[in-house]
């Protein structure tokens, strides 16, 4: 079971192999592999399994907390989800895709993220279904 912050439902779907560092990219590749194999997910408040390799993680506290907390709360509200919700990856990913990526909410939720332009490029190139592999969302 993976613990994921709500906004990571978006990041994982748009992930293209780029990251903060080589170590983070390797870690994110492992996360993507897990979800592509059907790993279950619980929506987690605070630093999660993705955050463990993030350079903004300072002893379990997010150095970008204000920004990511806003993103997390937006994902929960828009998708009708709550912290501690559990489901399979594909169910969560499909809901986030339908409610955020396929609407104007994408810019509203993700526009302040440093990775937004890269993610926007994948949307413009119409690369959905995502890198998550065989389990199409």
Structural description of this entry:
- Helices cover 47% and strands 10% of the residues.
- The protein has six helices and five strands.
- Strands 1-2-5 form a three-stranded mixed β-sheet. A two-stranded antiparallel sheet has the order 3-4.
- The longest helix is centred in the N-terminal third of the chain and has 15 residues.
- The protein is globular.
- The C terminus is likely disordered.
Choose one word for the global shape: globular
Radius of gyration: 13 Å
Biggest sheet layout: 3 strands, mixed
Strand content: 5-15%
Helix content: 40-55%
What can be said about this structure in brief?
The protein is built from six helices and five strands; from the N terminus they run βααβββαβααα.
Features:
137 residues, mainly alpha, three-stranded mixed sheet, two-stranded antiparallel sheet, 6 helices
């Amino acid at each position: 079971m993976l613990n994921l912050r709500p906004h990571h439902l978006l990041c994982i779907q748009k992930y293209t192999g780029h990251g903060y560092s080589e170590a983070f990219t390797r870690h994110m590749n492992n996360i993507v592999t897990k979800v592509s194999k059907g790993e279950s997910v619980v929506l987690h408040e605070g630093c999660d399994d993705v955050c463990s390799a993030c350079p903004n993680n300072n002893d379990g506290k997010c150095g970008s907390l204000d920004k990511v907390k806003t993103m997390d709360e937006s994902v929960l509200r828009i998708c009708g989800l709550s912290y501690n919700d559990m489901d399979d990856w594909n169910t969560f990913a499909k809901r986030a895709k339908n409610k955020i990526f396929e609407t104007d909410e994408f810019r509203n939720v993700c526009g302040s993220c440093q990775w937004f332009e890269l993610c926007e490029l994948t949307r413009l190139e119409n690369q959905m279904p995502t890198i998550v592999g065989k389990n199409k969302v």
